[in-house]
Amino acid sequence: MNKYRKGFYGILLLTLTMLFGMTAQAKTDDTIKTGIYAGDVELSGMTAQEATAVIEEHIESLKDVEITLLAANDHDVTTTAGDLGVTWKNPELVQEALELGTHGNVIERYKILMDLQHENYVYPIELDFDLQAINDLLTRCTKYDQEAINVSLKRDGGKFTVVEGQTGYVLDVEKSIDAVYDYLTEEWNHEACSIPLEIVVDEPKGSAEELAQVTDVLGSFTTSYKTSGSSRSANVANGCSLINGTTLYPGEEFSTYKTVSPFSVANGYYMAGSYVSGKVVDSLGGGICQVSTTLYNAVLKAELQVEERHNHSMIVGYVKPSMDAAIAESAGKDFRFTNNTGYPIYIEGYTSNKNITFTIYGVETRDPGHVVTYESEVLETIQPTSESIVQTTSQPIGFVDVQSAHVGYKARLWKVVTENGVEVSREQINSSSYKMVPRTATVGVATNDTNAYNEMQAAIATGSIDQVKATAAAIQAAQQAAVPLPATGEQTPAVTETPADAGGAAQ
Questions:
Q1: Per-residue DSSP letters for 180-215?
Q2: Does the reported pTM lie above 0.85?
Q3: pLDDT tens for each residue of 45-56
Q4: CB of 214 within 8 A of CB of 343?
């Protein structure tokens, strides 16, 4: 019995010696124990400095790894982890690895050391990425987006044909940022990879069967621009062509301004008369409001839902009061309407012999005896009672530019519905107020000729534009008689007058 006891104590003493030896070693060891890894990087026997360096070297090697982003419409965009700003997120793992097996009681430390002899201990390398870099790259990927194009109609030679639509593919940037970041920080194995982005698929509206029903004329209207010059005529034709061929599905809204803008040379517009601040001035797209006005009246006849309509600042000559619809970028004016029918509609627009016509096709669901007409009612007429003369030193004496007077009106528009010849309703659709603008003359007074200046001032004092025009003409004649015309054929200042109906419209 004594022999066994001595043996037991001997083994116990040996074990304790080993444990105390390991404890002492743990307290003094400044290297990482065998079997400890950071990801795929072995750290066995390394100091903290050495382990940090080898992991950083591994991170550096990751910067060249290719990452492919699967963008919209089967486009691939290849980048690298370095371009996405890969960094090491948890460098504290080195100290944790160094201290593994040095904490706890003797038994706990012994167990860890024994486990390391049979199985490696792996610390995960946590990575971080630059969210702004990911965002910048994905923003560039939006160039591959493809807008959905609805199935539409085309009318040629009096016949409709169906134009096939196009599926839309749009990158959801915000969701794609999350998808890329989450994959790279949680699932990536540090090898070349492909990451699908979040793509929104937008299927086109409509079908050939649905559009085949569009055959009935719901409303049509024509206005004339026979008094317009070539530039204004070109603007009317251009604006009409931009609207022609529009297919509008149930519930969809149409914006005239968005469709015909921008008013630029590149978009087919010329300088022509338009209403600005109570005057007729030349601007790009002058006359475009005759396009929106003609469309407005076709829409009224089709009984579509008008969302926004504005009258002109001054009366126009191509429709009755309250039957106009002005658009103007500077004033935020638009003509908008919604297809409130249960079927698609098609807008046809064309010009011929200086007439513009819009016809709206759809599916007629109104009773054959249902007839809609519109009546313009003038509530007040405001006649100009005076003339206005404005002097300017920016023009030479003899220059006179006359803006004809515009009569002011207050009016409203009535919608009258009859069923089988019997009036069943009368509804006010809009009210309009048009400015009265007196006949106005802008008179040049810049001169070194004191006598001519005094003559012009005397004419201005009469308050008569006709007297001013006569005086200006006399001054010009005297100047031309005294001084020969330049050989270049340079024009002398002219007396001009813009008629009341210049065919202009506010943009």
A1: HHHHHHHT--SS-EEEE--EEEEPPP--HHHHTT--
A2: no
A3: 999 999 999 999
A4: yes
